[in-house]
Design a protein that fits this description.
Length: 337
């Protein structure tokens, strides 16, 4: 696990800044992501059809600053996808009254890395299956240790993995990024992730006038992932991970991908259990958030857990050999009256 040395840190930061001069926020393998999409991926319209049909949308909408979580800062690390997913996940937690800053380094260290960055599906899969820990376990301020260390899963402690399970997401829905009504309907539910290509004028537009919409110049330099948090008459308002707040994107700017995260209660996440059936028997068991298992003693107990919506996902088979690797939890998980 990398540590911060207050005496060496200034030198390490200077060395990192020299080596990464000219590198700014990016890191999205958009070409690969687009190639893997098909019409079945666009799920938002199916699940929220009633919200979209006949929607009356305001001319302006923006999540208030007090409603938004702290914006991640990716610096020169190719972590825009992880930063976007972390920002949205943090937003959902804050709406529940749990104002946390979740670590983009957690999914970033657990996903495959390509020449152009990482994948949305890979990052969201980590958040869905493993969650993500709070930033104090994997601080973003240590970015200056470089790409190799930011991608190193060995830096994730057992305590970080345990904390991560409290921040798993329930599901995610892809949007038709070219459908303005669908996009705005989704934004009013929560910030959305948006994939696009950055051209030559991306940074100059933001530097010259942050309130002026960034327009497409037809150049595809590399893929980038940001988050829409609102809109006005000029364009979409978005959060970026450059340490400079919010910006505006012209409505004519081509968008290639968008998604919405459907979250679950942070309190609920700490209680969810994965159901299994022991292979070759009729015995049911659950694996608890602490990684230990318990057998289900009765049909009534199983029904009670389902009634309380504590069972996560479909029942899968587990072999005796696999079960032997887990520790048994002897504390009661539910009282059936």
């Amino acid at each position: 696990m990398i540590q911060e040395n207050k005496f060496l840190a200034p030198v390490q930061k200077l060395k990192h800044n020299i080596e990464t001069t000219g590198l700014k926020e990016k890191g999205f393998d958009l070409d690969n992501e687009i190639a893997s999409l098909d019409p079945r991926n666009y799920q938002f319209g199916e699940h929220f059809e009633e919200d979209i049909f006949g929607a009356v949308l305001p001319d302006r909408f923006l999540w208030k600053q007090a409603e938004l979580p702290k914006l991640p800062f990716q610096n020169s690390i190719f972590s825009c996808v992880s930063a976007t997913c972390s920002f949205i996940n943090s937003f959902n937690s804050k709406r529940q009254g749990n104002d946390v800053f979740l670590a983009w380094r957690y999914p970033y260290a657990l996903v495959p890395h390509y020449s152009g960055g990482t994948s949305v599906k890979d990052n969201l899969s980590v958040l869905q299956k493993r969650g993500q820990c709070e930033d104090n376990f994997l601080p973003e301020r240590l970015f200056y240790h470089g790409e190799k260390e930011m991608q190193n899963p060995a830096n994730i402690t057992a305590a970080a993995h345990k904390n991560a399970r409290n921040y798993r997401i329930k599901a995610y829905y892809f949007l038709k990024a070219w459908n303005e009504i669908e996009m705005k309907t989704a934004i009013m539910k929560a910030p959305t992730g948006v994939g696009l290509y950055i051209g030559n004028n991306w940074y100059s537009s933001k530097d010259n006038n942050p309130g002026r919409p960034i327009k497409w110049d037809g150049v595809k330099k590399y893929g980038h992932l940001i988050s829409f948090v609102g809109w006005n008459q000029k364009g979409y308002i978005f959060a970026d991970w450059d340490g400079r707040g919010l910006h505006v994107l012209d409505y004519s700017y081509p968008l290639f991908l968008s998604f919405l995260i459907h979250d679950m209660s942070d309190k609920l996440k700490a209680m969810l259990m994965k159901p299994y059936k022991l292979e070759g028997t009729n015995r049911l068991l659950v694996v608890l958030p602490n990684g230990k298992y318990q057998f289900i003693d009765s049909v009534a107990q199983w029904q009670a857990l389902n009634a309380k919506k504590l069972i996560l996902g479909e029942t899968k088979k587990i072999t005796q050999a696999e079960l032997n690797k887990l520790e048994k939890d002897n504390s009661p998980i539910v009282v059936v009256k």
